[in-house]
Amino acid sequence: MLRITAATALALVLFFPVTATAENVSESASENTAPQWHMVKEESSIIFNAKQMGSDIRGRIENFEAEIFFDPEALSESRVTVTVYADSINSDYDTRDDTLKGPEWFAADRYPAVTYQCADFERTDSTAEDGTYLCRGELTIREVTAPLDLPFRLTIAKDNGKNVARMTSETVMQRLQYRLGRGDWADSSIIHNDVRLEISVTAHK
């Protein structure tokens, strides 16, 4: 009895393929001119929203990580990798969550990580007080990788002497594009194909 909003993924999810080791992070940081930002987990969230036979389902991802190299003045040097741990899906209904983690959905035992990677950024509104951007990335769920565009708003300001970035995004993913929900669950009259992601990330450098 699943009422899910898959994703999240994400999200946007997304909001986000294996978590980098400290050595790899150090190496990758040296290869980027864009500065590295460190996500503040307690101020960041991925929410997913879907419909099951007309009923709303809302859930969240409890455990995800982000490797962020971003500079508004050097978008070509910016990149983001988000790793979402599928066993942390929480829709406040254990039976549904167990189904989501099972073989017809995320198959969390076999594919523990969902990843979103983006290195193609565009500023979409140069007149906005806050930066508005589009991230053209790829979302990988299980063995399926497909494009997912992520529009987002970004503010960067000083907070207690630190540069703090706050990003918010809403986007819609189509779960069947990633073969998310197999067998009987592929019927979009049961679970709608569209899954809306709400992503919020706070990071500092």
Shape: elongated
Distance between the termini: 43 Å
Helix content: under 10%
Radius of gyration: 17 Å
CATH topology: Lipocalin
Query: Overall pLDDT, averaged?
Result: 87
DSSP summary: helix tally: 2
Question: How would you characterize this protein structure?
Answer:
There is one protein chain. The model is unreliable at 1-30 (pLDDT under 50). The longest helix is centred in the first third of the chain and has 10 residues, at 22-31. An 8-stranded antiparallel barrel has the order 2-5-6-8-9-10-11-12. The chain has one domain: Beta Barrel (Lipocalin). It has helices spanning 22-31, 94-100, and strands at 7-12, 36-39, 45-52, 55-61, 64-69, 79-85, 89-90, 113-125, 131-141, 144-159, 162-174, 194-204. The protein is mostly beta strands and 205 residues long. It contains 2 helices and 12 strands, in the order βαββββββαβββββ. It is elongated and about 50 Å long. The protein starts with 6 loop residues before the first strand and ends with a strand.
Brief summary of the model shown:
The protein has 205 residues and is mainly beta. Helix content is 8%, strand content 51%. The longest helix has 10 residues, at 22-31.
Main attributes of the structure:
single chain; mainly beta; disordered N terminus; 12 strands; eight-stranded antiparallel β-barrel; 51% strand; 205 residues; Lipocalin
